[in-house]
Design a protein that fits this description.
Order of helices and strands of chain A: EHEHEHEHEHEEEHEHHHHHHH
CATH class of the largest domain in chain A: Alpha Beta
Largest sheet of chain A: 6 strands, parallel
Number of domains of chain A: 2
Radius of gyration of chain A: 21 Å
Shape of chain A: globular
Strand order of the largest sheet of chain A: 3-2-1-4-5-6
Distance between the termini of chain A: 47 Å
Oligomer: homodimer
Largest interface: A-B, 118 and 118 residues
Number of strands of chain A: 9
């Protein structure tokens, strides 16, 4: 296993990794760096890592695992800046939400290092050094996308590392990862960002009314539309092809439902709406969501 | 206040009204009817109302408030069928999610009765006689849309009734209600139904993968896409004009974001994504959602 993990970028992901290592891998030393001095201060206060450094070079010194936790489009530049400082035998990994373009950027920036990209499918709508918590990865998936030829021993160590943090690891091809995540994560975020924007621009309905009556469904979308704007800008750009492909399918399906509403084709609507229930059932059966109505927030809202 | 409330349709809404009356208005008698014999059996087992009747006529006899809790497009037919049985001085109301077309249908079906439509903005993804619970309306809005000329005393009594069940009442014009709900509830449901359908039809990504990695955002959409298909078919048809108007705006906004992704206009994406955070903040400040990350389900998922 690793002795010293360096974390570059101390936001929700980086901070949670630091806290998770302290909680579940107490023998492992951690160091970290964030480009923002204010974030480094918060990281020190919250003790996200053992040692918060004032440069990335200092943070990666003597590390045997370096995890880049910066927005996808920054990965290449950050890696290139640290190339000479990262120990030659260190394993480099990341937490980027898109994998093919990040893997290519890292391979190009670090031609002489071993790079094995990864993506923990875990997060909340909160971001920054205040947002992390040790159990973020527990009972969540972590998708590892090793290049074709890789060091199998290091790969095993990286898998064991994520498992120690509570995740279940899947090995996947980077391109396939990008398609899967485009539909399960990127497209939902794009749709949520869109509808929240649409609702706030209306003339006929005030923003106050939108907020007031949001329990009818809208509030579910606002949660993911509150996610980190920098990261999401980068996700859409770095996974552009898969996102645009999925968006095209979505638009076709939406147009078909729009037409069914216009011509009042109740049967087509009913058939579609009945089909979608089954997916919810499977998600709950596989433990991927809370089965309680309203995600359990009813318990919080009222006194049921 | 009312002495005897008759509830027609004993699903999530009707059942919850019955249970809420027993809990918060213990002096009031309740009777109820559901077109499905199986639902009536469940209603009897769960004691959703004091007396479950085998006909609607029997249920409304001697009632001074009749609440129709059937799908929007069935309102007119159901009301017409009960016209001769509903006492002449009874107030008739409903819980339909669209108001203009329902109000028109009820006014036409019951020309000699006093009708004051209402819409409790409360629900869960569950439906049927098993789904109701007494606190469904607590801390939720109930929008009442009286016709221009109405009996103000009866209106006051209806408002007091919903307040006794825990709701906060707003009086609104039916057309405006339909626009507000089109954006806060109907469009979100349509989008959610669409994306869940799109995801289940892909060839490149299996349904198993969609379910497995749904925590990346997709699972939030599956909750509302599991709502009652009959009711939602009727909502879209009965509020067609407002839904199509809002959908048009949404599509324009989505196309603009799609273009920004295609041309990699990071600045446009960032600007949009930053703006949408503010709405989430307001929803939480106004107590319309749970402030905990992931709606608080993180507490359930892991051990944070």
């Amino acid at each position: 296993m690793f002795d010293h993990v360096a974390i570059i970028g101390l936001g929700l992901q980086g901070g949670s990794i630091g806290l998770a290592i302290r909680a579940y891998l107490p023998g492992v030393r951690t160091s970290g760096y964030d480009i923002s001095a204010a974030n480094r201060d918060v990281a020190r206060e919250r003790c996200l890592v053992d040692r918060v450094c004032d440069t990335g070079e200092e943070a990666v010194r003597d590390a045997d695992l370096v995890i880049l936790c910066v927005p996808p489009c920054a990965m290449g530049t950050v890696a290139e800046g640290l190339r000479d400082a990262i120990p030659a035998d260190a394993l480099v990994s990341d937490v980027g939400s898109s994998k093919k373009s990040v893997a290519d950027a890292l391979a190009k920036a670090l031609p002489d290092h071993l790079v094995i990209p990864a993506h923990p499918v875990a997060g909340t709508e909160n971001s920054g050094p205040q947002a992390g918590f040790a159990s973020l990865f527990r009972n969540r998936w972590c998708i590892v996308t090793p290049p074709e030829k890789t060091d199998l021993l290091k790969l095993t160590e990286l898998v064991a590392f994520w498992e120690a943090l509570g995740a279940t690891v899947e090995i996947m091809d980077a391109e396939h990862h990008d398609l899967v995540l485009a539909v399960t994560s990127h497209l939902p975020h794009l749709i949520a960002y869109t509808i929240v924007g649409t609702a706030s621009d209306l003339e006929e309905v005030t923003r106050g009314e939108v907020i007031k009556y949001s329990a009818g469904g809208f509030r579910d979308f606002t949660r993911i539309a509150a996610s980190d704007p920098t990261m999401w800008r980068d996700v859409f750009i770095s996974n552009k092809d898969a996102v645009l492909t999925m968006l095209q399918r979505f638009t076709e399906d939406l147009t078909a439902l729009q037409r069914a509403i216009r011509v009042e084709d109740g049967e087509a609507l009913y058939k579609h709406f009945e089909r979608t229930r089954a997916i919810r059932r499977s998600i709950i059966e596989e433990g991927q969501d809370d089965a309680r109505p309203d995600f359990g927030r009813a318990d919080h809202d009222g006194d049921a």
